[in-house]
């Protein structure tokens, strides 16, 4: 809204500020724009604004649960003042690395040389005091956060095997870390709680996995004694034309396992493309198995199904004796 003489009204100015901050404004910014503290309280009571964290608001309103994660993280970091930065799962979310279940908790670290703030009214906020080298703190769209390598390192010390390897796979696949940078992690975790398990997780990381579901399916097969011998197998015809990629493959058995998550495989167009690709692979002599998250959550189901398929392939490929 524009007032007399072309002056921008406070709420319009605030919304402009919010657009550059993921939809968030601070009390200081609102006061500078011309609002009063009473006005801010009235906007929150009416539901037009949503309180995100101490001194931080979403002018668009709406239920707190509908607020995007990044603005909630931005608000939490901002509310804790200079020196605060996102860590652990919140830093992972900012970088766009997958592999863990989404959780409402927001993890922020504050400097170790000041008292840890008490935020009993912000139940989702978890405040840490981690010792982090300044070089390991980066800017993500204006939000301080631990670097991808430091974030991954901190998390694999705390996570179980399957989510830890999923995080490593995602970070490698998306180019946030490299095999060379991960080679430095054992030295970084030496002496820390969880270091032996973290080193083991590093040995299982594979950046060819394109989703956490692929990672889980691979680990289920490893644990079940039927590890795939190749990931993202390129299947080509006699002329070298690409027929399709197989998520997990056992080349000797000409067996491929595909993982169907809720993301890229969920649209009608993707389903049609998957079916056409599967037809090409089957016509080229490959057998296809398909697995979902519900399958991956059952420890024995995927390897059992793979073993059954291999057994059937061996039986049907044996020459029959004529009588």
TrEMBL record:
Entries under InterPro entries matching the protein: AbiEi_N, Restrct_endonuc-II-like
SUPFAM superfamilies to which the protein is assigned, alphabetical: Restriction endonuclease-like
Boundaries of every AbiEi antitoxin N-terminal domain copy: 16-55
Pfam (any one): AbiEi_4
Protein name: Transcriptional regulator, AbiEi antitoxin, Type IV TA system
Species of provenance: Micromonospora rifamycinica
